[in-house]
Amino acid sequence: MKKPHYQVITAESAGFCFGVQKAVDAVCKEIARGEKIHTYGPIIHNERVVSDFEKKGVRVVETPEEIDGLTGGTLVIRSHGVSKERFEQIQSSRVRCIDATCPFVKRIHRIVEEESAKGAQIVIIGNAGHPEVEGIMGWSSTPAAVIGKAEEAESYRGDPERPVCVVSQTTFQVEKFNELIAILQKRRYNMSIVNTICNATRERQEEARRIAKIADVMIVIGGRTSSNSAKLYEICRKECPNTFFIQTVEDLALELTGEEKVIGITAGASTPKNIIEEVQNHVRDGKF
Ligand code: F3S
Q: Is the C-beta atom of 201 inside 6 A of ligand 1?
């Protein structure tokens, strides 16, 4: 086979993080036990994994009403976690609960619960509507604000009499977090900031940036609805305009000029190893 004219660099941090691996392992273990299994929401943002699990009998439950309707089996809470209300509902339902909430997300729940109980206003730096953010909001005893953009930070008006406690979605972009904090700090609130972006995210973003800087083509593999993959794409595109966002090797339509020296590959936290390997082998074989 002819050697390609470029070098392929795959990020070491690409793929499942510790929290996602733990959640997927929990489901696999239950399948092996032959239990009736449900997950609250798709276990990870990856269509192939979710549909493989479906074929093995894993059912996705989407609403509180569906939880009430369950009569047995197990329900796995995914790594994103859930609100306090949902957590208590699952605990008191007729199913056995397996809580696969990532410990880093659990820590945020604890901070938000304790700080809001002490009277602080909670601000979450993150994407409104993301299940992890929704879950975090649900541990605050008073309404929490979500800030994901500079305009939202500019227009945030907290109660000047009460302290503000800021946390972040675990997969938020580090640079953007710092930018939003700087805007909030100008207001001089009595503000405590806990940067809860997890290390796996930080390392993945830094490595992606490093590779994208030297790459002529960059490939980001991730689910359509995966926010950490979308952020990786954003980071890589800044450094390498020739960045592609794909779900699987089937989406990859590379047209090379023959001048490329480096092709970089990274993947979001919910991308399984076999999908990364398929892309990597495809690129290494130069099958275009
Ligand atoms: Fe947990 Fe970080 Fe993954 S918070 S789920 S280890 S991205």
A: yes
Domain range 7-15+200-285, CATH class? alpha beta
Domain boundaries, the chain: 7-15+200-285, 18-102, 104-193
pLDDT digits (tens, 9 = 90+) for 150-162: 999 999 998 989 9
What is the pLDDT, as a whole number, of residue 48? 87
The closest-lying atom of ligand 1 relative to the alpha carbon of residue 199 is 2
Query: 97 forms bridges with which residues in the sheet?
Result: 75
- Whether pTM exceeds 0.70: yes
Task: Specify whether the CB–CB gap between 136 and 86 falls below 8 A.
Answer: no
| 26-63 tens-digit pLDDT | 999 999 988 899 999 999 988 889 999 999 999 999 99
CB 207 within 8 A of CB 200: no
* Nearest protein Cα to ligand 1, atom 2: 198
Question: Does residue 137 have its Cβ closer than 6 Å to ligand 1?
Answer: no
**Ligand 1 contacts CB of residue 198 (under 6 A):** yes
Per CATH, which fold does 104-193 belong to? Cobalt-precorrin-4 Transmethylase; domain 1 (3.40.1010)
Contact 146/122 with Cβ under 8 angstroms? no
